[in-house]
Amino acid sequence: MKLNASTCSRNSKRDIKLMKLDGYIPAIIYRKGAASEKIRIFKKEFEAHLRHIEKGHLATTVFTVHTHGKDEKMVVKGIEYAKTTYEVLHIDFQPLISGLIKVRVPVVLQGEKDCEAVKAGFSLKQAKRFVRVKAPVNAIPANFMIDVRNLQPREKIRISSLNVSENVRLLAAENELVITASK
């Protein structure tokens, strides 16, 4: 997903307000060991990409941000929405440079309608919707898929039962609860 960005010098609230009226979203690129860079992104372009991203998968989506005549791969580290309209107010980007990165990976359930516990009258309660991981930038998992079809009543799935590749490190305790079938 490609985003065109341009640098901006915003010094006051008035500058930010004028930028938003012109159809831009203020954003910052945070670089490790260097000064942060203030940029602006065309609002309609970002919202068009946002419509194609699955709910909860924004943190693991890699964007190609074009600024200063070159492309750079980045992930959204933080996003701020308006409380009433859910309009995007501000975005924080982190470049994907070689090494490890910490991200929140969504937990996706598969087979909820065919679950043994649901058929027995129990309900699935998802305690964790995201799991923080530390992974190489080229091996960020898109999500953790959990098949719950064979989940029995009162059975629990913990962090330790997630399938992770050996170069991805979970930053949550292994006994933390992910999902349970209870009444």
Task: Itemize the secondary structure elements and their pairings.
Layout lengths: L1 E6 L5 H9 L2 E6 L7 E6 H9 L10 E6 L2 E12 L6 E8 L4 E11 L5 H4 L3 E4 L3 E7 L7 E4 L8 E3 L10 E2 L6 E6 L1
Parallel strand pairs: 1-4, 2-6, 7-10
Antiparallel strand pairs: 1-3, 2-3, 4-5, 5-6, 7-9, 8-13, 9-12, 11-13
Describe the protein in words.
The chain is mainly beta and 183 residues long. 12% of the residues lie in helices and 44% in strands. The protein has a six-stranded mixed beta barrel with strand order 1-3-2-6-5-4. A four-stranded mixed sheet has the order 10-7-9-12, with no helix packed on it. Strand 5 (70-81) and strand 6 form a beta hairpin. It is elongated.
The level-1 CATH class of the largest domain: Mainly Beta
- The number of helical segments is 3
Query: What composes the largest sheet?
Result: 6 strands, mixed, barrel
User: Overall mean pLDDT score?
Assistant: 88
Broad structural category: mainly beta
Task: Give a nutshell description of this structure.
This protein has helices spanning 13-21, 43-51, 116-119, and strands at 2-7, 24-29, 37-42, 62-67, 70-81, 88-95, 100-110, 123-126, 130-136, 144-147, 156-158, 169-170, 177-182. With 183 residues, the chain is mainly β.
Q: Any key phrases for this structure?
A:
183 residues; mainly beta; Ribosomal Protein L25, Chain P; RNA Polymerase Alpha Subunit, Chain A, domain 2; 2 domains; 6-stranded mixed β-barrel; 4-stranded mixed β-sheet; 13 strands
